[in-house]
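Annual report, structural modelling task.

Input specification for the zinc ion complex:
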Amino acid sequence: MAKTMMTRFDGAKEMYARQGVDVDAALDDLNKVRISMHCWQGDDVSGFENAGELSGGIAATGNYPGKARNRRELFADIDKAFSLIPGKHKLNIHACYAVTEQKVDRNELEPKHFDAWVQFARERGLGLDFNPTFFSHPKAADGLTLSHPDKNIRQFWIEHGKASRRIAESFGKELGMLSLNNLWIPDGYKDVPADRYTPRARLKESLHEIYAEKRDRNCMVDSVESKFFGIGLESYTVGSHEFYLDFAARNDVLCLLDSGHYHPTESIADKIPSLLLFSQRLALHVTRAVRWDSDHVVLYENELQEIATEIVRCKALDRVLIGLDFFDASINRIAAWVVGMRNMQKALLYALLLPHEKLAAMQDAGRFSEMMVTREALKLFPLGDVWDCFCEVNDVPVDADWFRDVQEYERDVLAKR
Ligand code: RNT
Ligand code: ZN
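The model returned the following structure:
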């Protein structure tokens, strides 16, 4: 390590030690956290099916040049991103990224259609997570899938849901690392519905069918992702938070909280300890909500720090499955990945460097002024010096330097697409 960096690191270590924080232990803990990087930032959620327009009330806006147009390009871009992100992680993929010679409809997908992904992950020591794709498909054209009034359409999507569980299980088996199978459906209505009950009853029944078959819990876990509203589905979403919270609690399924799916002032961090008290595991889609949209690149800011802090002080780094979910087509897509992943790690480091027990003791003793003063002081502690050291040890460039690599890649590779 360069001498100045070493000096900065030692100074930081000493400052944290005076607060009772062990920096080396924090770095060890951070090194073990695998974050699931979503493949869909690389191509604006297009997938490999040539399905046309993105549907389901989500939108990737912008037309920054260099988007990955096929598997080869997406794999290369993922490699580039991971080369700039410290540590070993997981990759999160969607069913619409199946690699098939001929067209295979979603209800007929099998593990073998994801062999290319498994091989890619295996060669790089990555884990794989999975998501059935209930959008961008003719049978989801009216925005309804598992709650559709038409039984045949529901049946098609139930089959897709079942197929997805088999695929996720195969990922866990092949790679020896637990795979998360996360279900999100866009179902909802633009305007005030005449019946809120029946669509939810149909969704409940469809989910029971999907989850009826036992899968190996050492290989895969299921989660359900709720949402408050989507574009064109503003008045009602069938899979609301309360619906899934209850469903998950009763059916050996995890809740997945997407940090962009709630009311703008609602804290997602606050939900974490509540859920952890009742469930062994919890899954997250970390994203950044801006007004009515939920899928902006994750920045290092307060809400993210709060989420990370809750995970760490609940001692739940091994119980919370952290994934990212954003898609920005208006900037360099690799930079978007790297910024989001590194910020998630930075927030975890921030959380790992807080003296939680000391602060909790102050709370219990009613020493609230001291608690406030201590925390405010900690906000300006030299986290950046510890972070730079983490990057250096993991052999990736520090914050000020990595973008140059991305610019080079843009010039040499992306610009030629
Ligand atoms: C949509 C959900 C969902 C998707 C991805 C592509 O609002 O957040 O997770 O973003 O599955
Ligand atoms: Zn999400």
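The pocket of zinc ion (ligand 2) is lined by residues 184, 225, 258, 285, 325 (CB under 6 Å).
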